[in-house]
Amino acid sequence: MHQQGRNDETNLRRDLGLIPATALVVGMVIGSGIFMKPGKVILAAGDSTLGLAAWVIGGIITLAAGLTIAELGAQIPKTGGLYACLDEVYGKFWGYLFGWVQTVIYGPAIVGALGLYFSSLVIPFFEYSEEVKIPLAIGTILFLSAVNSLGTRYGGIIQSVATAAKLIPIVLIAAFGLWKGNSQILAMTSGVTESAGMGAAVLATLWAYDGWIGVGFVAGEMKNPAKLLPRAIVIGLGIVMVAYIAVNLAVLHVLPAAEIVAQGKLAAGAAATWLFGDFGGKLINIGILVSIFGTLNGYILTCPRVPYAMALRRQLPASTLLSQTNSRFGTPLNAIIMQIVLAILFVTLGDPDRLTDLAMFIIWGFYILGFLAVFILRRKTRAENRPYSVPAFPFVPAIAIVGSIYIVISTILSNPADTLLALGITVAGIPLYWLLNRSGQQGGS
After folding, report:
1. pLDDT confidence tier of residue 4, bands split at 50, 70 and 90
2. Which residues, other chains included, contact 108 with Cβ-Cβ below 8 Å and sequence gap of 6+?
3. Cβ neighbour number for residue 323 with a 10 Å cutoff
4. CA distance 330 to 150
5. Cα dist. 327→150, 303, 332 in Å?
6. Phi and psi at residue 182, to the nearest 5°
7. What is the pLDDT of residues 205-264, one digit of tens each?
8. CB of 104 within 8 A of CB of 425?
9. Percent above pLDDT 90 for the chain
């Protein structure tokens, strides 16, 4: 197994330095969550102090997770990320089940949630009726899907513009909010008597920190992964944590915690209007919309690659169809269509917070397998043969494992209905796996 991983790695060009790797971390992680989740986190935690603590805890768990998965990615630098790693370490079944979850829950739920977040901000900005929320979300998803179907070049252009634009509202809200605000920050109640608990609060922050999983799998393309990968992760996620906590402090300094909860997804925009007036607030809101638009584009660009990779291995029904690429544009058009149909079904649920909780719960359950895989590989690979080793082993992986188990258990206790739904969809993939195996459709790994 180790030799295979090393061979794959040597075929990759080592062009990635520290600055672009760090920028990749920041660009992948920062999206809609920092603008959409402050109110949800305070509501779940119960007050502003615990809400800020949830952002710190979520960041620490994410940092430990990123450093741990980086070791896995450095040893098995294969296309498909964690999907390929679970296949390699645990066997074809677990790789398949993770790919199944990504295909039918994680990817479509996130695309659906981002479409709903985008439309929920467009509606007050243009004073549209609330009735257009779902059609507008679906229309946005269809538009970006059409663009990405024409080739990665066009989706890449949108991504580049959005990545630069997303930093503008974060910097402005953080700087001016901390400077000009006058509200009390700590020990401010949410205004609601019942809270969902710290588990739900941390889970909400993990949506904002989501995106880190891809970072560890560029190890094979770094000039010196042993040195650059942990530095890029620590610096990149450190920047993200500082930005997130600064924005939350700034918004709390501008708006009382209870009002942030009442404003919900509009809280960041309301803070921007308070700081910069109506016109300035609209400009900041445009920046927020561009950020969410770009994040949605990124997921539409990348998520269909999972069912496409599974179809190449004959691990899905209609694999022959889903593994085809468009002869003119070179894109996995059928896989894109399938993902978008599923995303639109999720959009019809109408609650983006519910979708993000659903996605985070199920994906973190599989991340635990990834963290444990590092311990398995440690027994098989000597330190001198590892391109990168997680620092402070086994404490850092233990933080990732304990933190993610806490999140999974807390979510089951606080939201049993949706967790059962997610688990039910996951388990539904098992008989499909057996059926495909029995019929001889699955290819090798």
Report:
1. very low
2. 303, 339, 342, 343, 345, 346
3. 20
4. 8
5. 11, 20, 10
6. -140, 10
7. 998 998 877 665 555 566 776 677 778 888 888 889 999 999 999 999 999 999 999 998
8. yes
9. 40
Strand partners, 47: 189
pLDDT in tens, 306-329: 888 888 888 888 888 888 877 776
352 CB-near residues (< 8 Å, 6+ apart): 36, 112, 113, 114, 116, 117, 120, 265
Long-range pairs for 322-330 at CB < 8 Å and ≥24 separation? 326/149, 329/149, 329/150, 329/151, 330/151
Which one-letter amino acid corresponds to residue 373?
A
Residue pair 346/355 in contact (Cβ under 8 Å)? The answer is yes
Q: Which residues of 302-322 are buried (b: 16+ CB within 10 A; e: fewer)?
A: bbbbbbbbbbebbbbeebeeb
CA distances from 372 to 7, 89, 253, 353, 393 (A): 23, 10, 41, 29, 12
Fill in the amino acid letter for 48.
S
Cα distances from 87 to residues 6, 60, 149, in angstroms, run 16, 27, 28
Q: What are phi and psi of 222, to 5 degrees?
A: -95, 150
Distance of CA 382 to the CA centre of its chain: 32
Is 198 in a helix, a strand, or coil? helix
Taking the CB of residue 96, how many other CB atoms lie within 10 A of it? 25
Whole-number Cα distances in Å, 63 to 56, 74, 186: 10, 17, 25
Tell me if 268 sits within 8 A of 280, measured CB to CB: no
Contacts of 7 (CB under 8 A, 6+ apart): none
* Size of the chain in residues: 445
Q: Helical H runs in 331-394?
A: 333-347, 352-378
Tell me if the bond preceding 394 is cis, omega within 30° of 0.
yes
The DSSP 8-state label assigned to residue 47 in this structure reads B
What is the DSSP-derived secondary structure letter of residue 348? T
